[in-house]
Design brief:
With 379 residues, this protein is of the alpha/beta class. The protein contains 16 helices and 9 strands.
Length: 379
């Protein structure tokens, strides 16, 4: 199928015809200079496309990828959020509420889609990119993949469904990754259950060609056949790094099993990391990060472990809007991405100083139950 494609669009939307006449819906994030970071327009384009393909019998599956080799999606458009927060101090900016509402509906749609979705998570996958990857039925990582939820560095928290997927990772690895923003590789992603398939970095075009060449009409189980097909594009053994998390799982569980956040944070800060670069980087990120965020991570994981996916996204919309109001998020983005001085002036200097009443405020809905923007999610 030949289409006229707007190459200036921040998401390339294509309908590719397979040999059996069915359609592969193809969404490509197209902001390479911003490492394909997700903005509001992109989220709306993707959500509209997914909704339009959902009930079409000729659409057999969807693929989501990003332009370029550097990044699948390196997060969300926090610079625009900073501008909105600056313009509305001590209030919930309307732009933030709209952005997070659309983004979480998009993520939830991916999680619950009735057709297979391939997310090709090569290169950098952070924050908002994790939201796109984690919900897909076929989550592909490659040797270049670097996954992280580093929100502690900007005073936010691991949203986009992190409240659902982090507490469901092995042992205490979800809490550790949320608190330290630690970057994980492809082997880690598969070990903790955040990815399904490992493909070579160079395999994307060949894998897409193989999918388009296949007769999907003859398949009883499209999802299983797709997994089998993608698995044939595995990288060479020598290209695959060892898992950082797997070899340190016992230590991570030990560090994070204390009865309070303060103890967990002290355990991580004071561990003897020696010449272990991965652990010492995690240690430094937590030490320099927002004490308020550390509390939000601890609380979201505790609550999210008991919640449905839809309820996790509803909780996160409340938390994210409160983050837009309280000021810590604004300050974190200022220090990292606006003034780039790298010295955020966090409201508190340690987790011990953060009052419980402030953390409780992040979970208090600004809406009545039936007016919550995501009240119908999962209905």
């Amino acid at each position: 199928m030949v289409e006229s494609l707007d190459m200036q669009s921040p998401v390339l939307v294509q309908e590719r015809e397979t040999s059996s006449g069915q359609i592969l819906g193809h969404l490509t994030l197209n902001k390479p200079k911003a490492l394909n970071a997700l903005d509001l327009e992109m989220a709306k384009i993707m959500l509209d496309a997914l909704k339009s393909w959902q009930n079409r019998e000729d659409v057999v599956m969807v693929m989501i990828d990003g332009v370029g080799d550097k990044a699948f999606c390196a997060g969300g458009d926090v610079v625009s959020m900073h501008q909105a927060m600056k313009a509305s101090p001590d209030a919930i900016p309307g732009f933030l509420q709209e952005f997070f509402t659309v983004e979480y509906e998009l993520d939830y749609t991916i999680h619950t889609y009735s057709k297979p979705i391939i997310a090709w998570g090569s290169g950098i996958v952070m924050g908002g990119g994790m939201g796109l990857l984690c919900g897909a039925s076929h989550r592909v990582v490659t040797p270049s993949s670097r996954l992280a939820m580093p929100e502690i560095t900007i005073g936010l928290y691991p949203d986009v469904g992190g409240s659902y997927f982090l507490p469901r990772l092995p042992g205490k690895s979800g809490l550790f990754l949320g608190l330290t923003g630690a970057s994980i590789n492809a082997a880690d992603a598969r070990f903790v259950g955040l990815a399904d398939l490992l493909c070579a970095d160079t395999a994307r075009e060949n894998a897409l060609d193989a999918i388009l060449a296949h007769d999907w009409l003859s398949e009883d189980d499209v999802s299983a056949k797709l997994s089998h097909l993608l698995a044939s594009f595995a990288p060479e053994k020598n290209e695959i790094a060892h898992s950082n998390v797997e070899s340190r799982q016992n230590l991570i569980d030990e560090l994070c099993s204390a009865d309070s956040l303060a103890e967990v944070v002290q355990n991580i800060k004071h561990m003897q990391s020696g010449d272990d670069k991965w652990l010492s980087r995690a240690q430094k990120t937590l030490s320099a990060g927002s004490p308020i965020t550390a509390h939000l991570v601890y609380e979201q994981i505790k609550r999210g472990a008991e919640l449905s996916l839809a309820d996790c996204f509803r909780m996160e919309l409340i938390m994210s809007c409160r983050c837009g109001e309280v000021g810590e998020f604004q300050e974190g983005v200022r220090a990292l991405l606006i003034d780039k001085d790298g010295t955020p002036n966090w409201r508190y200097s340690s987790v011990e100083e953060v009052p419980e009443s402030l953390i409780a405020h992040f979970f208090e809905s600004p809406w009545k139950q039936d007016t919550h923007p995501l009240s119908l999610l999962g209905e």
